[in-house]
Design a protein that fits this description.
The structure holds two protein chains of two kinds.
Chain A lengths: L1 H25 L20 E5 L37 E3 L6 E3 L2 E7 L5 E6 L13 H13 L3 H6 L3 E6 L4 E6 L10 H10 L5 H10 L4 H6 L11 E6 L3 E6 L19 E5 L4 H9 L5 E2 L7 H5 L5 E2 L10 E3 L2 E4 L9 H10 L2 H8 L19 H4 L4 H4 L9 H10 L12 E2 L2 E2 L1 E5 L5 H16 L3 E5 L3 H8 L12 E4 L10 H8 L20 H9 L6 H18 L2 E3 L3 E2 L4 E3 L3 E2 L25 H4 L1 E2 L3
Parallel strand pairs in A: 1-10, 1-11, 17-18, 17-19
Antiparallel strand pairs in A: 2-3, 4-5, 5-7, 6-7, 8-9, 9-10, 11-22, 12-22, 13-21, 14-19, 14-20, 15-16, 23-24
Helix pairs in contact in A: 9-13, 10-14
Chain B lengths: L1 H9 L1 H23 L17 E4 L1 H6 L3 E2 L5 H9 L2 H13 L12 H11 L11 H14 L8 E6 L6 E7 L3 E2 L8 E4 L10 H37 L1 H16 L2 H12 L6 H11 L2 H14 L3 H8 L4 H37 L12 H10 L2 H4 L6 H25 L6
Antiparallel strand pairs in B: 1-6, 2-5, 3-4
Helix pairs in contact in B: 2-8, 2-17, 5-6, 8-9, 8-11, 8-12, 8-14, 9-12, 10-11, 11-14, 12-14, 13-14, 14-15, 14-17, 15-17
Chain lengths: 614, 416
């Protein structure tokens, strides 16, 4: 009997606890909305969801390292991501201007253009409440140099030193050439919008922790990092990354934004692939999408979903970079301009743009090819009439055939393929496997070869193989890489100079690990000379002349050819929960660029968006 | 022999399977003779054109005109461009902008469009309206332009000297062309795919290639399986042990895993259709070996085999003359199954992106792969993948039916 009652007691206890825990999940909390216990239950109306930025789990939070795989928080560069860490200035790709963030007012060059001076805002604070000072900026640079980080290595040739004059004033001293002139004023200027300011005190603590060991310093995951931005780590695992707003963020001061950004959480589910991301976007589980969604217009035209892009009509986004097919200039026959030009003018670009890119690129009729991206600012930098005869729109099969015939490159043995110096012209066109829009584009390039008697087949190695082969510029490219696709730089404060340098400067030839460009290893002394001269030139007329000459050389020598234009970010938004995202003619002044609400001046988007339901 | 074939064709299942297969096979053979276009030719600029008849607009303008006064022509034109949903959306906008009340009669097209044209302003900010909705209204507004117009559309040409436009033709709402008189009309029964290729032409070529792959793979697998099975079963002893060791080894490793690993290591540049077929053949022979061996073991102690042995015939002779004929029917059935599983294996590999190279020949698996990459299944472009699925299903289904039919005829346990 006793045993039985104990049994009863136990089972009723169990039932009670089950009931209670079931209620616990739904029971209304106290007056204030409770902090969600875990990332699985983020309140939808306080969370902005992303896709297409973060692939694979986060490695760390160390702003000095380039191996964090932490796309939501850390990405330095032309349009630096300023969710957690901040730069002195924000670059705006739409108007080409820099707007102060941590800095107070515009920066100034001295009369000799050898030094930049700017001030730090009084209101700027670190997450630990201490003020951001000029000393932090100086120490960040000193650390980059000391541990030879990518930022340090990339800028050492242009920046002599960064020093703090007083608590608020920063001076950047440029490297000078033998004549006493700044080596590269563009690069010096770009530093202030491309690189984070990191706290001196935290950096010193980290140095102490790793005993100033460079490898350990960069490998530290920096979970304790001090930041100045509006968001910081809330949760990460291999399924999602969540940042949470710091409600004490200094930027709510009237000298900056005057308010906090609207979403309390920035969440990024880690999707398996583009298709999974697209489904989530269509279902309203993603608000801001930075991935290639093929035929994006069908989501609103056929399905009536509240989804939109920056431009309502093709090309849907603002083209910023030029995905390009490079020639291996050492392949048999590709050292001949006639062969390079014949292939380039025979390619059916309208099909690449309509089919591979599903019209998410401007056409070469709309924006004739040059080295510039389709933005008005860059297009104005070269003389269109001077190079009009050199520009081609593609599909010129007859022209290509004639060009080859005239050069004596004909089919001598009657097998249907042309020979050069007795050897059949046979190439492999390649790009990474699974990069669908590029693969489809490469297929179209190969098809053009068949039309003009040049045998082009395609091959798609895995990205891990592809990247090692292509970026090894200290040796000739191996077989199978005759025509290959890579990217170009997008929009940024040093553009188009930086992009042109990446595409055709010979300084990358011979690099063991070349992530910059000119992978076909083209070399032209006049190009190098012009690239050297442009940064120091301030006369717009002369600049235009030099850029025009570069375009002329590029379109004559054809070391590579652009296949399409691609936006900086795809920036597709779903307005199920949030609205007022940047779009063409949204009335913002300065205009907010479509950069996923996270990059450069694009972060202003987070202060403009509001809930649809309100 | 004649008797056997008669028997086979008396099996209903075999006949159905054979008929389906024969029809597919004939289509594969005959279609390329009629439509000679290259299956990989890119004809469409744009992705996933819907199935239908495409008539050249340019040529229609030049074609002879006929005036037809058909009832409801206007209503059809309006319904085609202004759906019920569009009417409601227009009312919502007009109500939101404070122009009309909720009770507006949206079926009165003339009134609705008049109200719309006089009031719509894309820059007007209506509370609660998202940018996506605003874009929708702008598209709607554009599509309504000239909807109620009964004026003729003017075709003009630019004068080369003055640059002025000169009217060359007018097209009235009741002008028609006879489709037979338009020079360029293309019927695309299955539309186009992501590359802008004609799906039907591609599908039929792909079915042919897949059949070839299946046939090569099936032949290789059956040849290896049969040889090893005969040897292991008849000779026995150490030979049997060694062969069964390898057979068991292949049995426990899932063949798909092997296939993936081998295809991946071959590298894409060397993966032609025949290579893939060979790889499939070399990884799927083991179950034929086991089955043949079992049959041979039961046969080798039969009286006629023993008699043959006593007569001093060689092993080769005994295997070919006394054993093979008894298992021939089984081998044919096994080969049919091998062919159909070879086709499925190619499709499986290609969907993973490990199939033959894309540029040379289309295969069923590659078509599925590209349809998936370009998200045809998400965007509802069924014609890019459903016909492929059905073709794969039909081929394997017909072969399995033939196999079951043969089984009924040859297997004494199943004989009715």
């Amino acid at each position: 009997m006793k045993r039985k009652s104990l049994w009863w007691l136990l089972s009723s206890l169990i039932i009670l606890s089950v009931l209670l825990s079931a209620c616990g999940g739904t029971a209304p909390a106290a007056d204030e909305p409770a902090e969600p216990a875990d990332a699985a239950s983020l309140p939808r109306e306080e969370t902005l969801y992303f896709n297409g930025q973060q692939w694979g789990p986060v490695v760390g939070w160390n702003p000095y390292s380039s191996n964090n795989n932490n796309a939501m928080a850390i990405s330095q560069g032309d349009n630096a991501r300023v969710t957690m860490f901040e730069t002195p200035y924000l670059y705006n790709m739409l108007d080409g201007n820099m707007y102060p963030l941590l800095a107070d007012g515009d920066f100034e060059w001295n009369a000799a253009r050898t030094e930049i001076t700017f001030k730090i805002k009084e209101a700027a604070k670190w997450s630990d409440g201490t003020p951001v000072t000029a000393e932090d900026v100086a120490y960040t640079w000193a650390t980059h140099v000391k541990y030879n980080t990518p930022t340090g290595a990339g800028n050492m040739a242009y920046i002599e030193d960064i020093a703090a004059v007083d608590a608020q004033t920063v001076v950047i001293k440029a490297k000078l050439d033998d004549a006493g002139k700044t080596v590269n004023p563009l690069a010096v200027q770009a530093y202030v919008s491309s690189n984070y300011v990191i706290q001196k005190a935290w950096t010193q603590a980290l140095e102490e922790r790793v005993s100033e060991d460079a490898t350990a310093f960069l490998a530290d995951t920096a979970e304790d990092v001090v930041y100045s931005g509006p968001y910081h780590k809330f949760f990460t695992d291999d399924t999602k990354v969540v940042l949470v707003r710091d409600d004490n963020y200094w930027g709510k001061d009237a000298s900056m934004w005057g308010q906090l950004p609207a979403p309390k959480y920035l969440a990024h589910t880690i999707f398996k692939d583009n298709a999974a991301g697209s489904v989530a976007l269509a279902q309203g589980e993603v608000d801001v999408s930075q991935q290639f969604n093929s035929n994006i217009q069908l989501l609103w035209e056929s399905y009536g979903l509240p989804i939109s892009t920056y431009l309502p009509e093709p090309p849907y986004g603002i083209g910023a970079s030029l995905p390009t097919a490079f020639y291996n200039l050492e392949s048999h026959g590709l050292d001949q301009i006639a062969v390079r030009k014949a292939i380039a003018i025979a390619v059916d670009y309208p099909t690449i743009i309509a089919n591979a890119m599903t019209n998410q690129s401007a056409t070469f009729d709309q924006v004739p090819r040059s080295l510039m991206n389709p933005t008005d600012g860059e297009q104005a930098l070269y003389n269109h009439d001077a190079v009009a005869d050199l520009q081609w729109a593609g599909n010129d099969i007859e022209g290509a055939k004639k060009l080859l015939d005239d050069a004596g490159i004909v089919d001598t043995d009657g097998d249907g393929w042309r020979e050069f110096e007795g050897e059949k012209l046979s190439y492999v066109a390649t790009c990474p496997n699974g990069w669908s829009d590029w693969q489809a584009a490469i297929e179209v390039v190969a098809a053009a070869g068949k039309e003009i008697g040049i045998d082009i087949t395609t091959n798609y190695p895995e990205w891990s193989v592809y990247q090692t082969v292509v970026t090894k510029s200290d040796a000739p490219l191996p077989e199978g890489y005759d025509i290959f696709m890579m990217w170009s730089a997008g929009a940024g404060p040093t553009m188009p100079w930086g992009r042109i340098r990446n595409l055709i400067s010979s300084e990358w030839v011979g690099m063991a690990s070349n992530w910059n460009g000119n992978w076909g290893q083209y070399s032209n002394p006049r190009v190098d000379e012009l690239i050297q001269m442009i940064p120091g030139e301030t006369d717009p007329a002369k600049l235009k002349e030099m850029y025009t000459e570069l375009v002329e050389i590029y379109l004559t020598d054809i070391p590579s050819f652009t296949l399409m234009y691609r936006p900086q970010s795809f920036h597709t938004v779903n307005e199920t929960v949030w609205t007022n995202f940047p779009h063409q003619g949204d009335g913002t002044n300065p205009p907010v660029p479509p950069l996923d609400c996270t990059d450069g001046w694009g972060i202003a988007c987070l202060y403009n968006i509001s809930l649809v339901s309100q | 022999m004649k008797h056997t074939i008669q028997q086979i064709f008396r099996s209903g299942k075999f006949v159905v399977g054979f008929a389906i297969f024969a029809v597919l096979f004939l289509i594969v053979l005959i279609y390329p003779l009629i439509i000679t276009d290259s299956p990989l030719a890119i004809i469409a600029q744009g992705t996933f054109f819907e199935p239908g008849t495409y008539v050249s607009v340019f040529d229609s303008i030049g074609a002879p005109k006929y005036s037809l006064d058909l009832p409801h022509a206007d209503a059809k034109r309006i319904a085609n461009r202004l759906s019920a949903e569009g009417r409601e959306a227009m009312r919502d906008w007009l109500v939101g902008a404070g122009v009309v009340q909720d009770d507006l009669d949206i079926e009165d097209t003339v009134q609705l469009i008049a109200l719309w044209e006089s009031h719509f302003d894309s820059t007007l900010s209506i509370p609660g309206m998202t940018n996506a909705k605003r874009n929708y209204y702008i598209r709607l507004d554009t599509s309504l332009k000239g909807l109620l117009s009964t004026d003729a559309t003017i075709i003009a040409e630019e004068n080369a000297d003055t640059g002025a436009l000169e009217v060359t033709k007018t097209i009235a709402p009741n002008d028609y062309v006879n489709i037979n008189e338009v020079a360029n009309v293309r019927f695309l029964p299955l539309g186009t795919d992501n590359f802008g290729r004609d799906v039907l032409t591609e599908l039929i070529t792909a079915a042919g290639v897949s059949l070839q792959i299946g046939f090569v793979a099936g032949t290789i697998a059956t040849a290896i399986g049969l040889t090893l099975g005969l040897l292991a079963g008849y000779i026995g002893g150490v030979v049997d042990d060694i062969i069964m060791f390898f057979t068991n080894l292949f049995t426990v490793i899932p063949s798909m895993v092997l296939l993936i690993l081998i295809s991946f290591s071959i590298g894409q540049d060397k993966r032609g259709a025949t290579t893939i077929a060979a790889v499939i053949g070399f990884t799927s022979w083991y179950w034929t070996t086991r089955a043949v061996r079992a049959q041979v073991i039961s046969l080798r102690n039969r009286d006629h085999v023993n008699l043959s042995k006593l007569s001093g015939h060689s092993i080769a002779y005994i295997i070919f003359a006394d054993i093979l004929p008894y298992i021939a029917s089984y081998v044919v059935m096994a080969m049919i199954l091998q062919i159909s599983s070879g086709i499925l294996a190619e499709a499986g590999l290609s969907i993973l992106g490990l199939g033959p190279r894309t540029t040379e020949v289309p295969t069923l698996g590659l078509m599925m792969n590209w349809a998936m990459i370009y998200q045809a299944h998400i965007l509802g472009k069924w014609w890019a993948y459903l016909p492929v699925l059905i073709t794969i299903a039909l081929i394997t289904f017909s072969m399995n039916l033939m196999n079951t039919g043969l089984d009924q005829v040859f297997n004494p346990a199943l004989r009715e």
